[in-house]
Amino acid sequence: MLELNFVTVAFFVFSLITLGGGWGVVTNKNLFRGTIWLMVSLFGVAGLFLTLSAPFLAAVQILVYIGAIAILFTFAVMLTRSLTNLRERYYRTWVNVLGAGALFLLLVLGVIAPVWIANPDRALPVSDQVVRTVDFGVALASGEGFVLPFEVASLLLTAAMIGAIVIARDADEA
Amino acid sequence: MDCVGLCDVLAQAGWDRGLAQFLSLFVGVILVSGLPLVTVIFLIWVERKVAARIQDRLGPNRVGPFGLLQTFADLIKLLIKEDITPAAADRLLYNAAPILSFASVVLIWAVVPFTPYHIGTDLEIGALYFVAVASLGTLAVMTAGWASNNKYALLGAFRVVALLVSYEIPLVFALIVPVLLAGSMSMMDIVHAQAGMWFVFMAPLAMVLFFVSSQAETGRAPFDLIEAESELVAGFNIEYSGMKFGMFFAAEFLHVFTNGILLAVLFFGGWQGPLANEPLIAFVWLGIKGSLLYFVSLWMRNTLPRLRIDQVMRFNWFFLVPLSIVQLLVIAGLVMILKEIGLVPLNAQGHIDLASASFLSMLPMTLVLFFANVLIALPVVQWLRENGRKLRERDEQRTRRAIAANAAGAVGD
Amino acid sequence: MNVLNEWAFVGIFAVLAPVFPILPIVIASILRPKMPNVLKSQTYECGVETIGDTWVQFRVQYYIYGLVFLVFDVEIVFLLPWALAYHQLDLFAFGAGFLFIFLLADALIYAWRKDVLAWK
User: Fold this and answer.
1) By the 8 A CB rule, do B176 and C76 touch?
2) Do A141 and C60 touch (CB under 8 A)?
3) Based on the structure, what is the number of domains in chain C?
4) Which of B22, B57, B65, B209 is deepest in the core (most CB within 10 A)?
5) Which residues, 6+ apart, have CB-to-CB distance to C6 below 8 Å?
């Protein structure tokens, strides 16, 4: 069954951090504190990447999410008027609970179903090969790799930036 | 996990293997983190002494020989000083911010290679790790400003965060250059790749960009909008007092020295130098290089006046960012062309290999890259001079007009 | 599991690093005098009671800086592996990287022309 070793302990600790942070986000009435809790949660996700032997993704998670998205969120919150104390109550709680439950069920199904219904004949064996960050770089930029997605990513980022500037400028002038 | 050194000794003595591993790691962490902690106490004295000498003062000279014990006196003062938490503050986040600020700087030291054999942990993604960890400091500033619940603190925090995130872009673009040249993000590999030639000779512009933007990241003059005592009282830490203020303070001092060390590792060969096979001598080399770069940073801080925020932002977005992109492209392009010509040392697989290259085999590549950098730098310096002159003339004109208008008004009365 | 071994050090470090600043703060809280009063714990602004919410509406400028930074940050995430693998790559890969950076430089130039990056 479950072997209690270093990795397992790390997995449970990081899962706890992720879920605890998520709980903090949805229960906090203060938007800034909510952002901080979100960062705690994402930190846990970074740890989970580590347990999956993906240190590059873990560092990216910290750099992009905690370093940049957190800042962006606070700036965005600051654009609004006084949202630190949400006193308004949201009604129709049952609808929300039902929707959230359905979504959760879908997620659980999505995770479990492939394992449950999987055809062992068609399953691929778990690779023992350690994929390093260098291999990722080679795959991104070499001719037989994923050059097109690489360039499309750049195009997407450019579009995102231009779009944001257009929208922000409109908001500024209004 | 491999069990060597202390772990091996403990395991031989009959300890549990897991416990022995944990203990040896723990001792390693204490050693690696102890170094910056001891250094910071000394740094505060150095910084005050250097600042005093530049400003033609004596600096601390009463407590202990040459005032060396001044920091301990300050420490005792901070320890027994009343610490006021404003009633309106968010207590949890208010207390967490200085802790995060200091921890984010100390954590960088985990990947600093001290000698060829001693490093906290040689992460495969070391260079990305230290950028990611340092970006936590930005979050600490934001949290401090918000949790203080003070208008000046919030305004100061927002300005600083806008500045910090802006200067992180040229910083990372400059960082890509040593990664590209060494072909590795591991800090140890980056140092090894500089065995034949330091990267500063191949990419002087990247070095300057890294230095300038790391100076901005620590919030030192001329970028010290973090403090801006004349406009924002004290910026984001206005409400902090006692030891919590001391932690922000210590984090800043330590960050400046850490940047000196990082610069030495990335561009000045780290522990490389004559007789670097002896760990102690290698360590001294790193210390000397780091301290010299640290001194340049102090020198800059105490010589240059503070810039306005619009000037700082303009300098970044219209100058540093495009320059960092251009120099990265030029270096990447030239390295590839040189490789095709055959002027770059290669290994058996035909990949670039700088770690085992000698000084002479690196020379042609270095010369080409150096002159390419100079060729970029010359027009840039010329442009800077012209732009500076233009801005100054504009300001002069504005002032002259204002004086004239004042004089006319006075006559009218 | 090789990767996790390297990171065990960082894990212990990350747990221990906050202890260093916490320790002096805790010692200080034992040693220091504690005599708060209403006046002392007022917000330190202008010498009179602070008026209104601290949470005022900020300009959109900050958001633009944050967003441009985010875009560049994500770009760096792609460029670092590219630079990392550069030793094994050929001229084609340089072209790919060049195009990648060039497209983003376009966005930067757009931001310049719209004058959203200058502090106003």
Assistant:
1) yes
2) no
3) 1
4) B209
5) A55, B121, B122, B123, B124
Contact C43 B124 (CB under 8 A): no
> Is 0.85 exceeded by the ipTM?
yes
Whether B71 is in a domain gets the answer: no
Indicate whether C9 belongs to any domain.
Answer: yes
Q: Looking at chain A from residue 84 to 113, which residues have their Cβ under 8 Å from any Cβ of chain C?
A: 84
Q: Is C119 inside any structural domain?
A: no
Domain contains C120 = no
Residue B254 lies in a domain: yes
Per the domain annotation, does B61 fall within a domain? no
Q: What is the pLDDT of residues A87-121, one digit of tens each?
A: 555 567 788 889 989 998 998 888 877 777 766 66
Give the Cα separation of B202 and B124 in Å (integer): 23
Contact between B143 and B97 under an 8 Å Cβ cutoff? The reply is: yes
Domain contains C106: yes
Distance CA A66, CA B276 (A): 38
User: Quick check: is B7 in a domain?
Assistant: no
For the segment B196-237, what is each residue's pLDDT rounded down to a tens digit? 888 899 899 999 999 999 988 887 778 777 666 666 667 788
Q: Are B83 and B243 in contact (CB under 8 A)?
A: yes
In the prediction, which pLDDT does B5 show? Answer: 65
Distance CA C95, CA B128 (A): 24
Instruction: Measure in Å the smallest separation between the Cα of A98 and chain C Cα atoms.
Output: 35
Please give the model's pTM, rounded to 2 decimal places: 0.89
Whether residue B158 and residue A78 make contact (CB cut-off 8 A), yes or no, is yes
Q: What Cα–Cα distance (Å) separates residue A31 from each residue in A77, A78, B362?
A: 7, 10, 55
Collapsed DSSP state (helix, strand, coil) of residue A51: helix
Nearest Cα to Cα of residue B254 among B161, B134, B145? B134
The DSSP letter of residue B113 is B
DSSP A74-143: HHHHHHSSS-SS--PPP--HHHHHHHHHHHHHHHHHHHHHHHHH--TTTPPPPP-PPPPHHHHHHHHHST
Within 10 A of B275 (CB to CB), how many other CB atoms are there? Answer: 10
Better-predicted residue by pLDDT, B58 or A29? B58
Nearest to B166 among C8, C69, C87 (CB): C69
Task: Compute the distance between CA of residue B352 and CA of residue B339 in angstroms, rounded to an integer.
Answer: 8
What is the end-to-end Cα distance of chain C in Å, rounded? 52
Domain that holds residue C40: 2-113
Give the pLDDT of residue B411: 60
Q: Residue C21 belongs to a domain with what CATH number?
A: 1.20.58.1610
User: What residues make up the domain containing B104?
Assistant: 86-328
- Residues of chain B positioned with their CB less than 8 A from the CB of A59: 125, 128-129, 132
Does residue A17 carry a pLDDT above 90? yes
